Structure formats: C-alpha cells, structure tokens
Amino acid sequence: MKFLSLIAASLLLASSTGFAPSPLSTIRPTASLNAISEDFSDSALTIAEAAASLRGKTIVVKYGGNAMTSPELKAGFCQDVAALQNLGIRMVVVHGGGPQINSMLEKVGVESRFEGGMRVSTPEVVDVAEMVLCGSVNKEISSTICSAGGRALGLSGRDDSLLQCVKKIDKQGYDLGYVGEVEIVNTKLLNELLDMGICPVVSPIGTGMGEEKDIAYNVNADVAAGRIAGELKAARALFLTDIAGVLDKDMKLLPNLSCDDMDGLIEDETITGGMIPKVSYATSAVKLGVGGAFITDGRVPHALLKEVLGGGAAGTGSGDGGTFVSL
After folding, report:
1. What's the number of domains the chain is made of?
2. Which residues pair with residue 163 across a beta bridge?
3. What is the CA radius of gyration of the chain?
C-alpha cells in the first residue's frame, strides 16, 4: 500500500501529541489538495475502516527477535502500540528476551543448554531469566510505550498469579527443568487494566500452582502470548518473527492460511524446524477463539501498525508481508 507509511506517520504524530484526529487531518501537503492521489485516499479509508472495526477490541502481540534488539525497531514498535491505543484499541504485549538472557548468563557464569530446541531451565537459569525479563527488559518496553504517548504497565507472570503453570513434560522425553506449561491465565487482572486504558506488558515468567505456588517457571513467550490471546478471546494475535512469514517450498510467502492448511504444511514438511512451534501457537490461539493470527516480519519498520490497519475492516493484513491465519 503505497501511502500507508505516510498515514501511519500521521497516526504516530497524533499519538505523541495525545491527539488522535482522522489520518487525513494531520497531513499538510505543500501541493494543492487536488494533487493528492486516489491511492492516498484509498489508504486513508482503509485505515479508518480498520480502526473503526477494532475500536474497543483486544489485540495481543508477541514481541521479540530483531524487533527487540534494534533501537530503531524497538522505538517504532512502542510508537505503534501507543498509536493503536489512542485509536481505542486494547493492547496486550507479551515479550521474550533470549539474547538478553544469554548475555547475562555469560556475564554471571551460569551454564545453559538446549534440548529439543528449548532451553533447559535449571533454578539458576530461571533466576537469571526472571531478573532480565521482569527487570530491565520489561520496564524498558513499558516505559518506551509511555514515552510514545501510550499507557503501559510492566508485569511478571507471577504478579497476581497472572500465568499459573505446571511443569512442562517434553514429548521427546527431555527433562527441561523449570519450564512451565500455562494452565490458568488471570484474565480478570488483564481486563481490569485494559478497562483503565492501560496496556499490560507481560514477561513470561510464570508461577506454580498449589504446593508449588512459590516456584518460578520459565515460559516460552510465543506460548504465553497465544494462551493469553485465546483466554481473552482477542480480535487478533500477532507473532513478530525474524522471517517474512510462512513460506512455501519455493520460498514464496503464503499470505493467507487456514488452520487445516497449516497442519498440511507441517505434514508435508513445508514447515519445519523452529517454525513448527510458532505456527502451532498461532493456530492454537485461533482455535481458542482469537479472530485471526498474524505471523509477521518484525524486522519491517512499524510492522505492527501496518498489519493491524492495512487490511481495512476485513483485518487480514496489509498484503505486503506476513501470513494471516484463520479458521
């Protein structure tokens, strides 16, 4: 969409000033209004339709990868969250932080290993993960959203028993230590914050249940985001990744897929390796009641804003990148 970036810029300006007029009212071209192209008008109408269809509804975003490590992409993501909030959309952010955890583990001399593609979480590893995720990473995200004109509050999955977990049993027989499987999500807490116009920013460290209530569990951020989206019956769930989306065997983007399509692509080994769990979390969220899920390239500036607003009332994305998953 040729002029989507220009209108997105106007939304970001409105967000930073606390004023959210219609997109066209923030644009002041030097040329005559008669010179504005039909493409521009079409883009503005598309965005207006998308914003109207999502106003008052909930979007859950899993934030991670290069979008978290690049200062420019990080700032753009937080601006996107603030802009969508100021359009009346209820936002929830669930973040990862693998590179930051790895860096801190190295600094403090704690060894870490992976089994079956997942980090084995010893008590020492969980301590470091909790320190990093619930401390510096979580608070930086929530603070930057606020600086961009939004409202956000950083939370751990242990706060008010937000993410209640049991020990994950790996299907391949690996003992992953204190890796948690989310059993219960405290949606009451999330909805209370959303009702106040606050974006919960959730770090994926969960708490045990029953006699294990004081145990901290490391939770995969994609899993946590998908489960939260499903329990909230969110309108959309977005998983920001470091690839363009789901690709076919010729490495071409598949822009729209059903859950059945996903199962078939896994079966014929079109989808392999690390993409299998990511698409599985997206399809699980849709099956739990989410209106649709995006697997989106977080390396694209303002990917969140473009995908949420670029599809108009249909809400299936801009068409410029990412894969939209539906029933």
Report:
1. 1
2. 185
3. 20
CA–CA gap between residue 18 and residue 230 (Å, rounded) = 31
CA atoms within 13 A on the CB side of 74: 18
- Residue 309 inside a domain? The answer is yes
User: Per-residue pLDDT tens for 237-290?
Assistant: 999 988 889 999 999 999 999 999 999 999 999 998 778 878 888 999 999 999
33 inside domain: no
Q: Which of 131, 288, 116, 91 is nearest to 218 (CA)?
A: 131
CATH number at residue 245: 3.40.1160.10
Residue 242: CB atoms within 10 A of its CB come to 13
pLDDT in tens, 164-222: 999 988 777 778 899 999 999 999 999 999 999 999 999 999 999 999 999 999 999 99
What does the alpha-carbon distance between residue 250 and residue 143 come to, in Å, rounded to a whole number? 42
**Domain membership of residue 264 as a residue range:** 4-12+58-326
